[in-house]
Design a protein that fits this description.
about 55% helix, about 140 residues, globular, Rossmann fold, 7 helices
């Protein structure tokens, strides 16, 4: 049960996303294998905000964002809301250059569940380079 973060999920649902993006190929593979995916409950807010930002920046229309949000709500991702993940995320954020706590929530969940965190966020992977279980979507396509 890997944990997926907002960077991957946005790649799955963004209007006009290139079907060649590694995250899309990974979703297809995971869906075919009926892999259960996990994320902190914050995922919905983060991805919804990314869709709104896309509207404001003229990347897509409001109707396209509405359709993408419908897809978001149907994704096979189990949302987890565990207070101890927030405490661990705080510790991690403080340890790693005060990195945003919302990113560290995904890390804390994956760490607690002893599973992989799949992220398209290269900066997060770089900061936590010593954590071998934090991977890019393309790492799982080999």
């Amino acid at each position: 049960m890997p944990v997926v973060d907002a960077s991957v999920v946005v790649d799955w649902i963004a209007p006009g996303v290139d079907p060649g993006v590694p995250a899309v190929a990974l979703l297809e593979r995971m869906a075919a294998a009926e892999t259960e995916l996990l994320a902190p409950r914050l995922l919905m807010e983060e991805v919804s905000n990314a869709l709104l930002t896309g509207i404001r920046r003229g990347r897509w229309s409001g109707a396209e964002a509405d359709s993408a949000r419908t897809v978001l709500r149907r994704l096979p991702v189990r949302l987890v809301d565990e207070p101890r993940d927030l405490e661990r995320a705080w510790d991690l954020a403080r340890r790693y250059d005060d990195h945003p706590i919302y990113d560290m929530l995904y890390v804390a969940l994956a760490e607690r569940r002893r599973t992989q965190l799949v992220t398209a966020d290269a900066a997060l992977r770089q900061i936590l380079g010593g954590f071998g279980w934090i991977v890019a979507p393309e790492d799982l396509l080999d």
